[in-house]
Amino acid sequence: MTGDDAAAAPGTRPDGQLPAPGADAEETWHRVHPVSPLVRGWIALVAILYFAGRERAEAFFEHGDLGLDDFPLLQVLLALAGVLLIIAVAFYLSWRFTRYQLTREHVRVHSGVVFRQQRQARLDRVQAIDVIQPLLARVFGLAELRFEVADSGESAVRLAYLKLDDAQKLRAAILARASGAAAGTDADTEEAPELPVVALRPGRVIASTLLSGTTVFLVIFGLGGTAILGFATREPLSLAVLVPILAGTVGSYWSQFSSGFNFRAAASPDGLRIRSGLLDTRAQTVPPGRIQAISIVQPMLWRFPGWYRITVNVAGYSGGDADGRTRLLPAGTRDEVFRVLALALPDPGTAEPIEVFSAGMDGSGDAWGYTTTPRRGRWLAPLAWRRNGYAATGTALLARSGRLRRQLDIVPHARTQSMALHQGPLNRRFALADLRLHSTAGPVSPRILQLDAGTARALFVEQAGRAREARRRDRTERWREAEARTSGPAPADRHQPAPEELPDEHR
């Protein structure tokens, strides 16, 4: 190794190899896998080859030759070799200038050749860690590690690509140090054990996809709309109208199916683990206390099989849910919903959680502590006025809504970001108000609809006090620190019992 190399990668061994990710010192830097630039840039490489060879391919199919008669063979080979050399140099420089470092308090990543980028994320801000394997990366046995932190519009750290074993070890090391379980930075960290909780069969994923809102849109607005248009114009339906609708529908079906395929949820001392994916696979780990809001939804077509979907807000998971990473359960039975809830909200804050949460999922009226829209609100919500309402437990605020599409939103008191009272002209006319609870960016937007105005104002003050007290008592920042001080890492069943061993209120 030259002097320049040593300066560029401090902490490397004399033989030029980098130590394993779990055994680094404070100043040790590591590099991603040498094949990473190819896995990241294969689309650009294919595009270059396409545009470079399209004209020759057309000449071959039209005239039976490649149109190279005007160019000596040596020139063609030299040009091709020059292009490949440029691509190889670009890939090498991209790999050479990408390094990462794990310390006691931070993860650092340096990248870029012309435009240099240096990113640093604090371990105590970790919200979730994903290990992702796109299809081509799986061929090479590689994986991308994404490290999410609070207040980040995108992944704070993205390491693409590492060997799958190295990515898993690095994830374990980050979680161990973020949780307080690791006493130092020089010990190799093994992945924490886990216990399976839920696994979905492909048949249910397919059925739930076909019974989704995409099918309703296709039938009502797609086929129905084009049929009405054809009847009104007395012209045969044009494929130009149907093709975009069908293409969008197929894309939506594929996204839902591929992201929910092979879905598995497990309990671990490091938090909730979720694996899913058909071509591109994802393994998520969400540490305890990082879930900001939970939504349990039952679309109208899912009532017959009795399925529910659970989505969450996690700081760092911004944007939509196209890749399914905010879904804790794509389509689960009532029993599976309670299993996942026991992991997402370990302390329900009530002695009768099954009854309270069941009333929120499909109940109505004021049973089990729910406060609903007063009778005068039936003019604004004739179907849902007895269902719209809220209930407060010792640890969370529950907001239910919807008669056809049932929804229960759960916001832990400690995760209440802010609140707002809304009162439009119709609500003022009937002395009603909506309370909106602001959460981090995500698919869950909790709100309590059409409460009595006085009740809404009282809830606003009460919830502010509950949130303040819950944040004061919150101890999830270093969730395994006490364990590390006493007897070291405990077996998985000490932290998360198997589903059949859970107490009745958590099953």
Automatic annotation (TrEMBL):
Sequence intervals crossing the membrane: 73-95, 210-231
Recorded superkingdom: Bacteria
Keywords: Membrane, Transmembrane, Transmembrane helix
Domain YdbS-like PH positions: 95-174, 262-325, 385-452
Key word Transmembrane helix present: yes
Basic and acidic residues biased stretches: 466-484, 492-507
A Pfam family of this chain: bPH_2
UniProt-recorded name of the protein: Bacterial membrane flanked domain protein
Species in which this protein is naturally found: Arthrobacter saudimassiliensis
Lineage, highest ranks first: Bacteria, Bacillati, Actinomycetota, Actinomycetes, Micrococcales
